[in-house]
Amino acid sequence: MSKIAVLGYGVVGSGVVELFYKNKESILKKIGKDADIKYILDIRDFSDSPYKDKFTKDINDIVNDDEVTMVAECMGGATFAYDFVKACLMSGKNVSTSNKELVAKKGAELLAIAKDKNCNFFFEASVGGAIPIIRPLHKCLAANEITQIAGILNGTTNFILGKMINDNMDFDTALKMAQQLGYAEKDPTADVEGHDACRKICILSSLITGKHIYPESVYTKGITDITLKDVKLAGKFGAAIKLIASVRKLADGKIIPMVSPTLVTYDNLISRVDDVFNAVMVCGDGIDRALFYGRGAGKLPTASAVLGDVIEQLKTEGRGTDTAQTWVDCDNSEIVADYKNAECRMYFRVSGASDIRPENIEIIEDADELVFVTQKISFAEADKLEASITSNGGKVEAKLPVLDI
Ligand code: HSE
Q1: pLDDT score recorded for residue 155
Q2: First-to-last CA distance in the chain?
Q3: What separation in Å is there between the alpha carbon of 183 and the centre of ligand 1?
Q4: What is the pLDDT of residue 388?
Q5: 272 CA to middle of ligand 1, Å?
Q6: What's the half-sphere exposure (Cβ side, CA atoms, 13 Å) at 351?
Q7: For a Cys staple, 121 with which of 63, 114, 196, 212, CB 3.0–4.6 Å?
Q8: Would you say 263 and 234 are in contact if contact means Cβ atoms under 8 Å apart?
Q9: CA 77 to CA 80: how far, in whole Å?
Q10: Which DSSP letter does residue 336 get?
Q11: Nearest to residue 321, comparing CAs of 6, 100, 134, 110?
């Protein structure tokens, strides 16, 4: 009998327990042997829970129990979760986590410990919620050179932008709804400022390069400056504003990962991804492109991904580490290129007296404000254009990239 421990009984942890018992019969068939949840770790009191006998507040109960071979970490954060996951891996237990902060900050170290201890550190649930993307990237698509990934990796901000676009709802009301639905992080700053999407693109970038890409190396801008005015003007241009996380491989092998609110034109399926859904477009030299779509946050969608890893581990137990899903530490300055070299079309909204009209722009509106989209330029050139508009008496109220994939 395989014994499982669940760390954290919040939105995701309680979803893991609920889904496991709901589908236990079919899950056990897939594993091919008996298995059960022996422990649930949480410092809060759950004495009314039907699972009350499984609760512990002491991680050592789990670490020191040889019966437990699989740990599902659903606590979040990179402090206690880091200590607990490390202790579990050090004692040879396999771990599945939904914790993107932990993987983005400590992935290289935890993967190395797992390899050393001949066990697995799985994190399918850390990117894209319910969407299978980690395993497809390093297994199904392993024959490809991955050249570019771009998509919506944060459900909360997509939910908020959708409410702004479709329902004219203001930012704060939409955020409150996302929190009530269990989509947002404990501190929603991580969602709205783009840190959550940044951690997720770090994980995908690390997978495709084999090198740990740290959040500090990624240009990250959130959605707090996005106004209803820009949402409407983007619509007039034929695009939706989405928080896009992307990574592009350059000819010299370096990468440019970034997170930014971005105009996505309606001919791109990503522009149609609404609500809490995520979508990840992967480009490779064999596949051309593949789009992965599904619920990016929430209790059971995320629990589904955590349990997928648990099932994968328990049915293949004893076969050692999955060496395909790994990366090593590295000096990021050697692999991450300056985002200012990235090129794409740029949306500008300009107020004030500037009479600068760059050549070959597409004008969206020319009334109180001048609103236009440039031809393909680099971020550095866009900054220069902004500087010349400013010195000419204008003010750039908004400057956003247009997705090019
Ligand atoms: N806060 C995250 C999101 C949860 O909204 O996407 C899933 O990682």
Answers
A1: 97
A2: 48
A3: 6
A4: 97
A5: 19
A6: 3
A7: 114
A8: yes
A9: 7
A10: B
A11: 110
Q: What pLDDT score was predicted for residue 291?
A: 98
* Ligand 1 pocket, residues with Cβ under 6 angstroms: 129, 154-156, 183-185, 191, 196, 296-297
Query: SS3 for 211?
Result: strand
Helices 11-22, 299-315: crossing angle, 10 deg rounding: 60
Distance separating alpha carbons of residues 278 and 168, to the nearest angstrom: 21
Amino acid 377 reads I
- Token match 């129990």: residue? 65
User: Is 200 an active-site residue?
Assistant: yes
- The residue type of 277 is F
Helix or strand (DSSP H, E) at 7:
strand 2-7
- Token pair of 260, please? 């930014």
> Tokens at residue 198, please?
């940044």
Q: How big is the chain, counted in residues?
A: 405
Q: Whose CA is nearest to atom 1 of ligand 1?
A: 184
| Residue type for position 261 | P
Q: Which residues contact 189 (CB under 8 A, 6 or more apart)?
A: 195
**Closest by CA position to 200, among listed 293, 111, 133:** 133
Quick check: pTM over 0.85? yes
Q: How far, in Å, are 166, 199, 249, 287 from residue 71 at the CA level?
A: 41, 22, 35, 35
Q: Given this model, what pLDDT does residue 320 score?
A: 76
Mean pLDDT in consecutive groups of 10 residues from the start of the chain, 405 residues: 96 98 98 97 97 98 98 97 98 98 98 96 98 96 97 97 88 93 92 98 97 98 94 96 97 96 98 97 98 98 98 87 86 98 97 92 96 97 98 97 94
181 alpha carbon – ligand 1 mean position (Å): 11
Instruction: Compute the distance between CA of residue 137 and CA of residue 20 in angstroms, rounded to an integer.
Output: 26
* Residue 325: predicted pLDDT: 82
DSSP structure string for 361-405: -EEEEESSSEEEE-SSEEHHHHHHHHHHHHHTTEEEEEEEEB---
CA angle 94, 99, 102 (to 5 degrees): 85
